[in-house]
Every structure is written in structure tokens, then in C-alpha cells.
Amino acid sequence: MKIGIFSTSKIATDQRIQKVSNTLSANGYSVTIYCRKHNKIGYKSENIKIKFINTIFDNGPLFYLQYNIQIFFKILFSRFDIIYCNDLDTLTGCALGSAMRNKKLIYDSHELFTEVPELVNRSLIKFIWRIQEKVFIRKANAIITVSDGVASELTRRYKVKEVNVIRNLPVIRETEVFKDKQPTIIYQGSLNVGRGIELAIEMMKHLPCYKLLIVGTGDIEIQLRKQMLESNLYDRVQFLGQLPPHELRLLTPTAWLGLSLEEDLGLNYRYALPNKLFDYIAAQVPVLVSDLPEMRKVVEKYKVGIVAKSRKPAELANQIGDFFDDKQEYESALKNIKSAVKDLNWQNEESKLIEVVKRVAAS
């Protein structure tokens, strides 16, 4: 059975698509991925075909229009049995193409796309995306998302019967942990509005013996670098850019604490279960997370770190200092992480994906 996966992301750095495609391929499906090309980081797979969609525009309405038109024609002239749509920004092309060819459609909503911070104050653009989702989500034979909160919201909004939760957990690997001698805090992920990175940099003023590693790229990177320089933190805040997964897996375990300090800027962040949260845990790094329901639930259930009590830099710095100073609490978190990894891994989660695909194939 042939499955076409469509995404606007770049396969080299999108670990969810890598995991989904590898799992499907390992279970006997023929997989072809259509995505954007990463100019700096390559990705190869022996069992998966990867094809790139090129557009004149890099972003904005004309980019999405052209991208979805290309998706539509790719499906129209293909022989896929199942169309696997990654997120709302490819749903229109996937839904129209699958309907035209009478193919099965799976919609994998990686987030509440219409509630991302970039759309909070753009009511017209947000309305257009929401109309697209409302119209085309019902065309899907199965809907997948990443957290219970997002699943509940999609069910409430669109009155769909079932939304399957498949968390974006990392593949479990043997991890050798060599902590940096200097207390090290890490943030990895997109450098975008609402991720709490500005707060993390400001917090470093109150943690003179610590260093902060920032891994990733994004819209506010220049602004963040300027903040770091103006705060005279160039010797303790390091921007490492976007790293390929294999390099990140070597770097992350050296940190003492991983940050996921998303702001409550809408339902998308409120119900988020960021990839980095589980990547930290997989690397045996305790976490500091925002007091938001989905993240708090993970930290409190597995006792793998701390939940932020404040978003004031000095108070947050004191909370981190207290966490490290309490040797018993920190060692307990490290011990609990080893147990959590046995549960929070893709090998446990992927069976849900195969079950959904089999159900769609048989329908």
C-alpha cells in the first residue's frame, strides 16, 4: 500500500515526519514524502522516497496557495492509496486531491494552527485558516493530533467523532550522559514569539555562574541576539543555530536543565506538548516548564523537573538556583527521568499510528 506524506516543513529537521515515515515503512508501507528542501542540512533514507516541492514564494499567502496547488496536482497524477496530510497548511491541497482521486485521507494536526501567536492579532487571516479547517477536516478518514487538549478543542469546534492522540515522543536510544562542568541551561526549538526565550535571556542576569545554550533559528533571532549583547551576556549566552538531530543528541545531555517556557498566548500554546520537552527527558535532562496544563501534567506525573512559579526573571532564577541547590530534589528528578524514558518514547507510541492507518486502509 502506497502512502504520500505532504508537509511544508523541511524533512531534515522535522523529527515527527521522520518518525512517522520510518514507522510506516518498517510496517510494509511504501512511503513518499513531499516537503521543502533544507539548504544546509541533508537527510537521506534508504526506504523512503523524498521529493521536494519548489515555490516562487518562501512565505505568505501566495506561498501557501502555490504549495497547495502543487500538492493537488501531485496527488492527481499519483497512485497513492492514502494521503497523509501534515498540518493545516497542507490540508486544502490534500483534501481536494484525495477527493478528486477518491483516496483515503489522514489529517495530522501538529498543533492548533489557528491559535498560533502569529495569528492572534490577525483576525482576517485567522478566520480564513479556520474556515479551511472547518470545511476540510470532515473530509478526513482519520484525525491525529499531539495532545489531549488539542484533541478536545478540535472535537468541540468541528464536532468530529474521534481525534487520535499520538504524542511526538522521541525514539529511545542509548544515551551517555556527560554533564558540563559549568551549570548549563538549554533551549532548543524555534526562535519565535511566545517561546519564553526573551525571559530566559533576562533570567541569566541573575544566574552569574550559569550559561545558556540556544539551539535553533526563527523570526526573532536577531532581536534575541541584540538583547543578549545589550545585556552584556555574550560570554554566557550562546546561539548555536540549527543543528541536525544527531548533533543535538550529543549536545542536549550535557545540559543540567532544559527550558520550555511558552507563554499563554492562546490555545495553541496552552495545550501544547512541545517536542523539546520529551527530547530533554530522553536526553536525561530535568526540565523547567511553564505552568500550562499539558506540560504541567507531564512534569507532575513523572516528577522530572519543576513548573515555573513566576515569569519574573529574578524569581525564576531563584527557583532554578533552589532546584540545583537541593541535591536530593535534583538527584530525584534524574532518577525519575530514567523511569519516564521507558514510557515516553516513540516505540511505545507508534503502535497507535499503525492502528489508525490500518483502520483507514480497511474502511
TrEMBL record:
Tell me the keywords, alphabetical order: Transferase
Q: Where is the Glycosyl transferase family domain?
A: 172-337
The Glycosyltransferase subfamily 4-like N-terminal domain covers 19-168
List the SUPFAM superfamilies hit by this protein, alphabetically: UDP-Glycosyltransferase/glycogen phosphorylase (SSF53756)
| GO MF, one example | glycosyltransferase activity
Q: Which InterPro entries does the entry link to?
A: Glyco_trans_1 (IPR001296), Glyco_trans_4-like_N (IPR028098)
Q: Which Pfam families match?
A: Glyco_transf_4 (PF13439), Glycos_transf_1 (PF00534)
Which Gene Ontology BP terms does the record give?
lipopolysaccharide biosynthetic process
Write the protein's name. Answer: Glycosyltransferase family 4 protein
Species this chain originates from: Tenuifilum thalassicum
